[in-house]
Every structure is written in C-alpha cells, then in structure tokens.
Amino acid sequence: MREIAFRSLGIDDMQSMFLWLLKPHVTKWYSRAPGSFAEVVAKYGPRTQRESAVHAYIIVVDGRDVGYIQSYPLEHFGDYSQRLGVEPGVAGLDLFIGEEMFLGWGLGAGAIRAFIEPHVFADARVSACIGGPQEGNQPAIRAFQRAGFQRWKEIENERGERECVMRRERLSTRFVLSPIDLARDVDTCIAFRRDMYLASFGTADYLEDEMGSGNETYLSQLRERVAQMPEGNMHLWAGDRIVGQTEMRLDEEPGVGYVSLFYLAPEFRGQGLGRMLHEHAVKVSRGRGLGRMRLSVATRNTAAIEFYKGLGWVDAGPRPHRLPIKLMEFGLA
Predict the structure, then answer these.
(1) What digits encode the pLDDT tens for the residues 243-302?
(2) Strands 90-97, 128-131: pairing kind
(3) pTM of the shown model
(4) What is the Cα–Cα distance from 92 to 79, expressed in whole angstroms?
(5) Tally of CB atoms within 10 A around 102
(6) I need a labelling partner for 171 at 20 to 30 A (CA). Which of 3, 147, 208, 236 fits?
(7) Are 98 and 23 in contact (CB under 8 A)?
(8) How many other CB atoms are found less than 10 A from the CB of residue 287?
C-alpha cells in the first residue's frame, strides 16, 4: 500500500506548480494553463502564508511530490458560494495529480480520504465538504464517490463549465452507536475481530492462538470487557446493519483506558466514522475520570498510525507481541 502524506505548500514549490499546471491533463479538467511563471506565483504564493484562507498542500506519495490539494471556507468566495447555494460552515476541496505516471492508480480517492479528516473536518466549524469536478471528468467524480461523497447538484461555474457538485457531510445521522449484544451479535464480533487482525498484520500467523479454540479466548476477553466497561463496547449501526465496533477496558495502570478495537467495515471507511468511534472512546474515558487512553497498532499499518496521529495520539514505544506492534497514547487532560 502506497503511503500518502501532505506537506504545506511552500514558495519553493512554485516551479513544480507551474510545470504541473501546464500539463494537458491538468489544463483539461483543473484550470486553464498559466500565461507565465509570475502568474502562478501571484496566485499560489499567498497560499503559502499561514493567514491564507485557502489551506494548500502538496500531495506526497512514498516520499515523492505528485500533486496539489487545497481546502477553503466557501463563504470566503462569495460568488461561488452563492452559485452553489450552500449554508455557512461548508468547505470546498480541490486537487489534481500533476505527475502523469501516478494517474489511474486510485490516488485521487486515497488522497481525499487521507486529507479530509485531519485537514477539513478537524475544524469543528465545518459541517460539510464540497468538491466540484467537471461533469465529464468521470475519474474525478468516481474518486470523490469512493471517498464518501455523493452527487448533490449540478451548476454552471463562472467559466461556463458544468460542475458535478459532490458533497460529504461531517457525519450522517443514520449512524447510531449501541451497546454490543453478545446474545444476538456474537458472530459479527468474531468476524470483525478476525478481519481486523488480517488487515492489520497482513497475515493469519498466530491468529488462531489469539482467538482460541472455537474463538473462546477472544469471547472470554470480550465478555470481561463488556462487563467492566459496557459503555465502551459498542456496535455502530447503519440502519439495520452493523458496520463498526469498539472494544474498551480499563488498563492495568490506574487512570488509563485501553482501546482493544476500533473497527469499520471496509466500505464504510474514509467517511468520518473513525473519528466518531474515537470521540466516543474519549467521552467514555473522560466519563470514567481517566487521564489517558492507550491502544496497540501493527507497525506495518501506516494508514492507521497516521490516522491516529491526526487525532492527537502519540507514539508510546514498542509493545511485546509475536508480530511487530507499537503502543500509542492519547491524553485526556
């Protein structure tokens, strides 16, 4: 899996931006070609400043600069905001992949998914996010859809182009957390736990040792967690379907809560629900008067590690395990 990261746009990036903005696949769908290097500096240079309303970043894949992404409060751009007909608190998001060799790899969707939680919805004032690919730009439309956006409306922008306006809410109200019902949903718990292990470690090595014969080792532990901290062991429901799970317990160290599992079904990832599970764990821990939370994560699971870091978790060092694993901590003060 390729590692997608972001760094703030800097003045030294103007040359790369100029060259990317001249490329045919960028001029076709993102913006017209700049007339000069000075034009690029005049437009994008101010976006390197901390006070800029446009939050601009370079997309970095496996350590290589490959494109550009930005977000901004739509009310800052009044004409466009009125054309869209959006309420206050909605952010806009634009991006392009500048390097041709990285096209067609699904990086657009991956970049949006990796960007939106730590860089858009991290601002509590943002209630929704809008993307506006041109109506004929099917790869971009699919990228937004794979990142949890839905078609919202079609408008004509100031250049006379038809935009397919894609929208993603901070959190859909159709998702509800409810305590785990072991009498009814034990098979779901087992399936989620097994899938989490395979996704985290990329192997089934030692899985049966951890689950136990007939999954009884795991189920015994889960029963203890539910009995000790019922409000921390929850299922996330979408309608009549369970799509996520949290498991929590008290750590051996006083004043510390331990998150044994954050899990989302694959098709529900990248929609802001991971933050919902995290925020619930924070609420539970604070309600118990705890000072910190801990969790374990496979060292190979870089996407999860970056997600946790974006929420404020910090590396707390290695944890003894058959497979490489590290501890992370979150302060509740």
Answers:
(1) 999 999 999 999 999 999 999 999 888 777 898 899 999 999 999 999 999 999 999 999
(2) parallel
(3) 0.57
(4) 13
(5) 18
(6) 3
(7) yes
(8) 10
